[in-house]
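Technical appendix A lists one of the benchmark inputs used to test multi-chain prediction within the project. The record comprises three sequence entries:
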Amino acid sequence: MNRPGLGTACAAMLRRDLALAWRRRGDIAMPVLYAVIVATLFPFALGPEDTLLQRIAGGVVLVTVLLAMLLALDAMFASDIEDGSLEQLVLSPQPLALLLGMKILAHWLATALPLIVIAPLLAAMLHLPGTVIPVLLLALLLATPLLSLLGAVLVALTAGTRRSGMLLALMLLPLCVPAVIFAAGAVAAAQQGLPWLAPIAWLAAALVLAVVLAPLACAAALRIALDA
Amino acid sequence: MSDWIPLWLHKLGSPPTFYRFAGKLQPWAMTLALLLGAVALYGGLLLAPADYQQGDAYRIIFIHVPSAWMSMFIYAVMGVASFVALVWRIKLAEVVAMQSAPIGAAFTFITLVTGSLWGKPMWGTWWTWDARLTSELVLLFLYLGVIGLYHAFEDRRQGARAAGFLAIIGVINVPIVHFSVNWWNTLHQGSTVNVFGQSKMAWDMLWPLLTMTLATKFYYAASLFRRARTDLLDMEGGKDWVRKIAEDEADR
Amino acid sequence: MSALQHFLAMGGYAAYVWPAYAVFFVVLIADSIAPALRRHRVLRELRARLARQSARQQRQPPPATPSA
């Protein structure tokens, strides 16, 4: 048996996950709808004054996107565990970390990318100045993969348990504090006309570190959680 | 395993031996904790003079600071025990790691509540988003996450390994949170609170503090021994030595 | 003011100092009682299980040779 090359396996993995996500298009729309609903509720709760909304817009969009991602995080490995394909993945000859990295990438493309696409709309609804929106998008582009990667490790840890979304939220909160701080910090700095490159650079550094380490940690966590 | 590890350490790792060993040490640790705690309270509440700036409110320090140290010390113990449990798959290390978590959470909770009670008269607020306070809150969430993950598994040993992994991730996370909150505070120019700053403590305030720190260390040992013994009984329910204990205690 | 009253007043900070100490002791006492309660429960359940097992063995002695 000649085994397929690493690149082929990774491409197949990515194609399969994206195809599966595309077949359940309704599930992709759910987090987006959730984010729109939450962002719409804020002005009703806080009042429609422009200055107040402007001040909180960046933070609201970031937290909304984060919560919407948390909503979809639970499903990252769920169907693969149910039909047993995750165990096949663990047994496959290719390095598990790399294949899981592809799964995380597919999940990010399916859930976070739509959120980033509508983020400018949400920001505009809350009167975020147009000049700040590029910084917000840049922060989201760096922060959302970071959350996907960190979340994947935690989802892998809970793979062997009965489902509990609340536990996942409790575990993710301490890990996502720095990401939220730097992403919101960059937006706030841009809004005040201060240099915003430093927090973005910190986010990028964290992302690079997570891209290297999180798939490995995810693989180790999955081995612990599935090892019965 | 390698032969540089002395034999008694291997023996100690076996549940019945550890059960007896912990049973012998536990009363001593508890007695020392109570004794030192009483001395520290006497020194802290009665002998130490009132602070010239903070009046008598500073006396919360004698429980607040030892609790804060314990919350971090126990997390470190949990991290090391989890690492040992994951690498060498020693059952006792899993028990130590998972039974430390509730004690650590208790000390973290005490730290937050007493800190809040101290902050109200001193800074005029129950809570401030200072790096030290925020890190402590994050630490509490980490403890709760570890406990929650441990109990989410049907299989106890598997739960201990998964939760141990989370504890190790947390060890890396806490300094990052501390650093990022510090950075965040300078951006928002929040109130910078510096209680312990350069102020040197007088000796008659320092010795009750150090005594209480020792007392909490011994308390932790005693509580950990108790919890570990109970957990071992639960885990090894089918074994002969546990059966004997169950029958002996029924006769009494 | 008597010495005890003076001590209890804590220089006007009694409302903060005493609750702090109360929390400290209540939490630690709860923490040290919890394992004792659990130990009783574990041993009681174990004894119940052992009693059930021995009762079952007395009612129907196991067959001398296990059937294929």
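The radius of gyration of chain C is 28 Å. The CA atoms of residues 24 and 48 of chain C lie 37 Å apart. Comparable benchmark entries are summarised in Table A2.
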